[in-house]
Every structure is written in C-alpha cells, then in structure tokens.
C-alpha cells in the first residue's frame, strides 16, 4: 500500500470569482488541451498540467509510478484568506465539493482534504464540519499564516479546539511566505521562503502553548517541515536562556513530538534526521504531485534507503498516512458506503 499524502488539485471549471467579487482571485486559463495557467490579477502565477483536474490522467500516473492512493488537497493560492468571508467561503465550497466528488467517483484511489476560510473562525469551523460530516473528507489543509497573522493568534484557538475535539487532521502548507520582497529572483520563494515560512508556523504553535492546550491535535507539515526540524535545538536553547518568555512548562522539542511531516525533502540524510528526531511513525510519504518540484516517482528516496527495515518503509510509504487520517476510525464512525469502500481499498491494497 503506497499512499502519496501530498498532492494538489483544482477544478477545471473553477468559477471566475473576479467577475463577482473584487480582489486577487486565482483563475484557470487553459493554454492547450493538456495544460493551463493559474492567473492572478492578469499575471501568470503558475503553469499547470491537466493532471491538476483530470482524475483519470492522475490514475494513469499513479499506476505507472506504483501509487495506490493519492490524498488530494487544494492549491494554496486558492486559500483566499484576504477576501470577504462570504466570497472566500464560496471559493472553499467549490473546491471542497470538487474534491469530494473526485473521491466519490474513485473511492479506491483517492482520499480528500478540504479548505476553510480561516479569516473568519466561525465560518471556518462551519465549513470544516461540512467537510467531514457531509463531504466525507478526511482532514483540512490550512496555510502557515492568515493574512500575516501567525497561527498562534488568539482568534484561531476555537478552530484548533474544534479540530482536536472532532479529531480532524490538519495539513499545514506554506503560502504567502515571509521575505517576499527578497525572494522573487531564482524562485527563492519556493526553495528558501517556503521552508522558512513553515518553520515559523511550527515554532509559533509550539512556543505559544497551542499544543499544550490541545495535545491531541493532529498536524502534519509539508515539505518535511521545512527548516523547522533543524532549528528545533535553537528553539530549545532560546526557551532555556529566556525564562521570562516561556509560555509552556516544557521546551519546544517536547511538543514537537506531536507533529507529523511529509517526506518531501529529496534527501536520505534529511529523512534519516526526521526519523531519528521524531520517529519513523511520524513521517508520511508525499511527492507534491503534479508540480515541477515533486519527487518522481513518489517515495524514491525512501525506496533507496538501505538502513530502513521493510516494516519502516511500509509505514512511511503508506500506513502512517492512513493512520494520520483516521481512515479506519472514520469508516467505523460514519459507516457510509464511500467510507466502507475506502476502508476496504486500504486493507486490500487496491
């Protein structure tokens, strides 16, 4: 069973919200039968292939690359946290409905994560409830900051409280990265900005006491946690030497044990570091399909790591993702036909 935890989708027919609401809405402009540009305010934000909307092409790629299940999540540029909450909720619902329908049509091959309008926590909680209760999605993807506010801002506590109460896993993906004025050249936003942004998000959740308040909260960080795993000893040292700044009874490394990380750091040395610091049960194979920076084939680095046992590889390549997403538990809790099908697929390896 191979589960690619980190993949992205967007509806081919996503509405042009710029025609209804003011703002920097992403739109999809097809350039050919097999590709399109994601446009923001008249500029090309990203070139994409039709794999972002065509589930059958995705399945062909999965069969060729040995992936049994993909976990589908929105492209972060569509989060639209800057927008009016009514419009942002509508954008979230369009994407959540699309992901849910894609999973419903291919229940043995896909699991889905939703998106919510985090700029209004009550609206975010309401849409999260719809995602897990009505759409049969397995978790929620959120950004590393909300309009420049770190995730430890007090207004987000209600969201994390409900995610813990309902046992909804969260996938935290970098977006609107720090130092944007210094990273346009060389595509540093992707290679330097995103890892740094992820580290700031993880550190904020720990240092502020969010994980102290909600110890059962399930969180996975994209891209191997960015630079967070490697600055964790420095965070601990800060906690030691600045007792007047402490908000938690334990140092940051104590709480970091609760985190999960996808495996997308391209390097066996880095993956070994993740495993040594957090455990092989906390690493989930993820490729960032279908974008240029993805790992091809998914799990390539893990496959070639001779120091890992077959059991450890099996867990990282698939079992950890299913456990993180509560696949069996949710099947038992809700008992819908779609969940039964997904549960059987996970057990059989189809």
UniProtKB/TrEMBL annotation:
UniProt entry keywords in alphabetical sequence: Decarboxylase, Hydrolase, Lyase, Metal-binding, Zinc
The keyword Lyase belongs to this UniProt entry's keyword annotation: yes
GO annotation terms (biological process): secondary metabolic process
GO MF annotations, alphabetized: aminocarboxymuconate-semialdehyde decarboxylase activity; hydrolase activity; metal ion binding
Domain of life where this protein originates: Bacteria
A Pfam family matched in the record: Amidohydro_2
Gene3D superfamilies documented for this protein: Metal-dependent hydrolases
Occurrences of domain Amidohydrolase-related (ranges): 3-326
Entry's EC annotation: 4.1.1.45
Pathway this chain belongs to: Secondary metabolite metabolism; quinolate metabolism
GO cellular component labels: cytosol
SUPFAM superfamilies: Metallo-dependent hydrolases
Protein family: Belongs to the metallo-dependent hydrolases superfamily. ACMSD family.
Subunit structure: Monomer.
Entry protein name: 2-amino-3-carboxymuconate-6-semialdehyde decarboxylase
């Amino acid at each position: 069973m191979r589960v690619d935890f980190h993949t992205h989708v967007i509806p081919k027919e996503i509405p042009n919200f710029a025609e209804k609401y003011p703002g920097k809405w992403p739109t999809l402009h097809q350039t050919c039968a097999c590709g399109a540009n994601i446009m923001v305010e008249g500029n090309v934000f990203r070139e994409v292939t039709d794999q972002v909307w065509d589930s059958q092409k995705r399945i062909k790629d999965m069969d060729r690359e040995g992936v049994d299940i993909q976990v589908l999540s929105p492209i972060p540029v569509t989060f639209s946290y800057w927008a009016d909450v009514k419009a942002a909720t509508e954008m979230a619902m369009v994407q959540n409905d699309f992901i849910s329908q894609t999973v419903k049509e291919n229940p043995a091959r896909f699991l889905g994560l939703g998106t919510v309008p985090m700029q209004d926590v009550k609206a975010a909680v309401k849409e999260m409830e719809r995602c897990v209760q009505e759409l049969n999605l397995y978790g929620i993807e959120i950004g590393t900051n909300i309009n420049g506010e770190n995730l430890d801002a007090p207004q987000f506590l209600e969201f994390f409280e409900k995610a813990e109460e309902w046992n909804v896993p969260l996938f935290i993906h970098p977006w609107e990265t720090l130092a944007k004025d210094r990273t346009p050249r060389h595509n540093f936003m992707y290679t330097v900005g995103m890892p740094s942004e992820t580290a700031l998000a993880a550190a904020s959740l720990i240092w502020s006491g969010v994980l102290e308040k909600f110890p059962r909260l399930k969180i996975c960080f994209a891209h191997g946690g960015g630079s967070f795993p490697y600055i964790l000893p420095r965070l601990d040292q800060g906690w030691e030497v600045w007792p007047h700044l402490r908000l938690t009874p334990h140092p940051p490394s104590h709480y970091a044990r609760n985190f999960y990380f996808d495996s997308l750091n391209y390097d066996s040395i880095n993956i070994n570091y993740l495993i040594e610091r957090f455990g092989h049960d906390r690493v989930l194979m993820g490729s960032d399909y279908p974008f240029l920076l993805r790992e091809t084939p998914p799990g390539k680095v893990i496959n070639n790591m001779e120091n890992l046992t077959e059991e450890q590889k099996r867990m990282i390549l698939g079992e950890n993702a299913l456990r993180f997403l509560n696949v069996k538990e949710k099947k038992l809790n809700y008992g819908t036909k779609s969940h039964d099908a997904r549960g059987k697929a996970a057990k059989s390896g189809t």
